[in-house]
Amino acid sequence: QQLDLLDEANNSLFAAEFHKRRLGIQRAMATEENRLYGMKRADGKRGGPMPVYNKRAELNRVLREGDAVIVTAGTGCGKSTQVPQYLADDLRSLVASKEGSSGDPDRSFRVCCTQPRRLAAQSIAQRVAQEYGTEVGKLVGFRVGNRGSEKTASSKQISRETVIEFATEGLLLHQLSRSPDSIANYDCIIIDEAHERNKETDLLLTICRNHLRKSDRKPLKVVVMSASIDPSRFCAYFDNCATVDCPGKNFPVEEIYLPIEVASSPGENHSGSFDNLVEHAVEVLFEEIVGKRAEEKGDVLIFLAGAKPISECVQSIKSRAMDEGLDDRVVAYPLYASMPEEDKDHAKDPEHRTGLVICCTNIAETSLTIDGVCFVLDGGTSKQLSYNHDLRCSALREERISQASAKQRRGRAGRTRPGVCFYLYSKDTHENVMPDYDQPQILRVSVDSLVLYALHVQGCSIEDLGLLDCPTEAHIAAAKQRLLDLRMVQLKEENFVLSRL
After folding, report:
1. What's this model's pTM, rounded to 2 decimal places?
2. Residues 162 and 107 in one domain
């Protein structure tokens, strides 16, 4: 009887282990199918392999030969979701090639992919976890900054088993500032959407570049990705590293210019230069899309600058749709960074989408993919942070976007089928007024924090950090004077040092 019970127990254990392994194999097969052929859409069909998959072998090769690579990838190629997965899968052999036979075959690996915005980090983490067939917070996780002093559960979903971590640039920078050695926690750091050139982006680029130049460092791979940067500058900055170019997966997008009369220099009268832009956008929406293109089913993105014009546009669309009896066909929602997380789901969740019109900031330019969009209305402006040296404070001003940003916005219309982009400005403005690329934020904001970072963390002056674009001498001198006035730094033998409380 005891032998029978033992046999029964063994059979149960065997059955449980067999079932566990079978589920593991099925999950692995489903995961690989998702990642190779795309997640199933609502119609049950797959979108096919992402274009960046064709560059996986090349990416693997250049990272075996060097420690840094610049990836230029067109809209819709899958760089933000796929490249972190490729590196996580291939990283063991990549790092082993550097460590040699002394490498620990059982040690864990971690990839950190930075995003400029909270929403992008969270959304991409959810997508990648879905493709892996796991929950967010296990194999794939994210960390984003808290709003103010309030800590929320949604700001961090990560665990010991996390291999791919998506983080906002500011959060990773804060971590590396408090503990510079924690860069050794990662085997690969991916700086995504590098074209935005935020102050945090530039400082992370410098930290990674300087780390790669150390002789006594742990192996680290650095990947800089963007759809619209000048790769030659970044390549030279990382000591002539390799570049990998991947074309996007976009359908044709028709371009239509429907300008309005606005001030030629937005900053001169920033309080009222673009007040009629909302009215014009609503008119174009109902006349050109709801009216003339009523048979072309598809959702709409309207790019505006800031929460106030977005709220006005949403209300105006709702009122006009109600007046014309179209409230069942035209549903407008806002989308901007400071919105509550649950409100953003209206724009992200396909279940809420019926003739959807999303009025958004540049949060929807990159990383965040909204399926179903085939019409874009580009207002041509965004809020830019700049420092007023006379008033000694920073302020958000409505400014013209760059041609690179306009290209990103245009690309939102052709992700799943041919689309149309309506530019709410003239072709002459597009080609002759808008700059080619965005001005690096580090050249137009206060650099007080960078001066303190250089002194406190690196023990050097900001000029010696080796930034990709260093602020002007006058800009730095003004920052040092402000810190002197606040008694945060002091002069000792003609050198600036941190003050001690």
Report:
1. 0.82
2. yes
